[in-house]
Amino acid sequence: MKRLLPLIALLVAAAPANQNVPRPGYVRVQLNTSEGPIVVALDARRAPATTKNFLAYVDDGRFDGTVFYRAARDKRNPKEGFVQGGIRTDARRILPPFPLETTAKTGIKHLDGTISMARGQSASSAGGNFFITVGPTPGMDARPGYDGYAAFGRVVAGMDTVKKILAKPSGGGLDAMKGQMILKPVAIRSAKRLDGTPKPTGEPKMWLYNFGG
């Protein structure tokens, strides 16, 4: 038994630490989807503006009842790519824009399991849509002449769920999204912060009102 003790200690030391625990400077959010939960840790220290924006959507319930609608698979390796979700073009849920925090500014790269903000042509057009990478996607990082996307955290639990979403049958779409729209979108039933106190914006929740009579 005495001979086994050093080996057991060595194995324990070599085991990876559980990443799904509170850590200073990070705020965890759980996305409860129809395919299972995903927990992301947002880097509030290095990407404060992007984290604040995402948490505003979470704390207001603006992601509740939205979907993952895009599965962009790498043609060379279909098991890698990214999944995209959020409010799509629902103007009733959108909050004001905020400045782009580039990867050159934050140092947060698009690696496996990175959460980042989707945006249009304008650098400050990110809002209520986000994506999660499967495998490294360095082409989304900033470089000279290209702003890239605002990475602001990473998945700490539920990458199996992300991979399930990436594997969903897809089609339709136009231009850059051609063939990438998930045919049966994956529901985001709720998004809840696991750390800290919620800070709702107090903005009207217009999507909750039925104006159809």
From TrEMBL:
The protein's UniProt keywords, in alphabetical order, are: Isomerase, Rotamase, Signal
Name the source's superkingdom.
Bacteria
Question: What Gene3D superfamilies does the record point to?
Answer: Cyclophilin-like
Q: Pfam families attached here?
A: Pro_isomerase
| Segment forming the signal sequence | 1-19
List the InterPro entries: Cyclophilin-like_dom_sf (IPR029000), Cyclophilin-type_PPIase_dom (IPR002130), E_coli_cyclophilin_A-like (IPR044665)
What EC number(s) does this enzyme carry? 5.2.1.8
**What's the protein called, per UniProt?**
peptidylprolyl isomerase
